[in-house]
Write a structure and sequence with these properties.
The complex is a heterodimer of chains A (112) and B (375). Chain A is α+β, with helices and mostly antiparallel strands. Chain A has helices spanning 72-85, 90-104; strands spanning 4-18, 29-36, 41-46, 57-63, 66-71. A five-stranded mixed barrel of chain A has the order 1-2-3-5-4. In chain B, helix 1 (21-36) packs across helix 3 (60-68). The model of chain B has no long low-confidence stretch (mean pLDDT 97). The chains are: A alpha+beta (112), B alpha/beta (375).
């Protein structure tokens, strides 16, 4: 089972993209610092920084104890999708999560 | 507290060097001792950031002292990551100020170019918070995060690109510099992206080299007027500001308090521009420039050689090069040469110099103030 915690919504403090990341990370590597409403700050990975702005609201979630940010719209859409799917959507969730993991996760198995 | 003076300064040419590190450090030490007209010091302070992993050698203080022919002289090694050289100067300063020694040789160096760039990046990156490192954060990555925050605060790509142009121009007059070639603003702004928005020509090179000074309790023409240390959290994400470094601000405050004067007395500075936006941050954190104006005065040429406040006459880390633990001492060597009229081809007219060194991603910083004695 993949443990998923929805941390919620946060604000972009700053971000960057590495074109030559360290060994074990996929290129390009998108990194952002996200601040939650209570002031807690997280370093996060993301799938894209194009169009990202400092101060913008983004979704933040943990997959296998690694934090990821994504545009808020996408999460909103996902929430609606999950709510509609209801209990029967468990299997769909698992597929969605593993897809999200494949897309978002930057580390290779060597880091594992 | 005993007053502390600089009796001599020396360094190797910085760059890709074939010699072993003990050879480079011996060359720098002998140059400083010769300038001081001292045959043997009472004590030696050695700075190297990571010879264990860069070279596979430990016990480096004794290693270097023995190589220099000073195995009988009390020697110790000091380390505060990339500011180790400045920390060694502080240690030597403290030994004399406390009356423990009268003549202290401070020598620092690093040898890195024999390793691949990813390997060097990984070794330097070990000074980053382990959690942030687990997300792929390297020094350029953290510098990219800071540069992004600066850009949001109105600092333009042109502003910090101009820092690189200026420092390369300065290095063309410095025979000790790694890069003695000029770069254009366009070349800098169009160089490849390393950590967006930071580009290759905003980053210092990987260099080999060594630098040394001799500190004494006997008056010379240059006094160490003040030394200050400032610190901050290892984790960058927990800091209150991404556009200034608390560690520099505190180091500057402590150095000015010891010297008994403020930034208005400083005539020129050597600032830690490992990434060119850091020069702009340092200008404001040390109080040399009012907040928000560092970009403007750089654009206006105030920090160029002919300007009101020349910064990095040596070429800085960007162009003189950054052999880690040599750098904090090499900055002071440049200041001493400038203050004593020994900076041929790039001589400034100044009485008070400031040297600023960053350890890690600004977790352990130093500011040193040097003053030429009135004749």
């Amino acid at each position: 089972m993949i443990h998923v915690t929805l941390a919620g919504v946060g604000e972009v403090v700053t971000y960057t993209t590495l074109n030559s990341p360290p060994e074990g990370f996929r290129s390009p590597l998108h990194i952002a610092v996200i601040e939650l409403e209570d002031g807690a700050r997280f370093v996060c990975h993301g799938s894209e920084t194009k169009g990202l702005k400092v101060g913008a609201s983004v979704a933040i979630e943990a997959i296998d104890n690694v934090y990821y940010f994504s545009s808020l719209g996408a999460l909103d859409r996902a929430r609606v999708f999950w709510r509609r799917a209801g209990r029967a959507g468990d299997r769909v969730n698992a597929i969605a999560r593993s897809l999200a993991k494949r897309v978002l996760k930057g580390k290779t198995s060597a880091e594992g | 507290m005993t007053a502390v003076w600089v009796a001599g300064a020396g360094m190797t040419r910085i760059g890709r060097r074939s010699e072993a590190l003990p050879d480079l450090m011996t060359e720098a030490a002998h140059a400083a001792l010769a300038a001081a007209a001292i045959e043997s010091p009472d004590a030696i302070v050695v700075a190297t950031m990571n010879p264990e992993e860069f070279l596979g050698d430990g016990n480096f203080a004794s290693h270097v002292a023995t190589h220099m022919g000073f195995s009988e002289v009390p020697t110790l090694r000091v380390e505060t990551a990339t500011s180790s050289g400045a920390a060694a100067v502080y240690t030597g300063f403290a030994q004399i100020a406390a009356g423990l020694h009268r003549r202290v040789l401070v020598v620092g160096g690093e040898k890195m170019t024999h390793l691949s760039t990813p390997r060097v990046s990984e070794l330097i990156g070990r000074s980053i918070d382990p959690h942030e490192r687990s997300y792929g954060a390297t020094m350029p990555a953290l510098a990219g995060l800071i540069t992004r925050a600066l850009a949001e605060n109105g600092v333009d790509l042109r502003d910090y690109s101009q820092v690189s142009v200026k420092n390369h121009a300065n290095a063309t007059k410095n025979p000790y510099a790694h890069f003695q070639t000029a770069v254009t603003l366009q070349e800098v702004m169009e160089s490849r992206i390393v950590a967006d928005p930071l580009r290759l020509l905003h980053c210092c090179p990987i260099s080999d080299g060594a630098a040394a000074i001799v500190l004494t309790s006997e008056p010379t023409s240059v006094r160490v007027a003040g030394v200050g240390q400032g610190t901050d959290t290892l984790a960058v994400r927990h800091r209150t500001s991404f556009t200034s470094f608390r560690a520099t601000q505190e180091a500057a405050k402590a150095a000015y308090a010891m010297a008994g004067f403020g930034p208005e007395r400083v005539d020129f500075a050597e600032l830690h521009d490992a990434f060119s936006p850091f020069e702009l941050i340092a200008l404001e954190d040390t109080g040399l420039v009012a907040p928000g104006l560092a970009g403007k005065i750089t654009r206006d040429g105030d920090t160029a050689m002919g300007g009101r406040l020349p910064v990095n006459p040596s070429g800085g880390l960007k162009a003189r090069g950054h052999p880690l633990a040599a750098t904090g001492i090499a900055q002071i060597v440049e200041c001493v040469w400038q203050l004593t009229g020994a900076a041929s081809g790039r001589q400034l007219d100044g009485r008070v110099a400031l040297a600023h060194s960053i350890g890690g991603l600004a977790t352990n910083n130093w500011v040193t103030l040097l003053e030429r004695a009135r004749a």
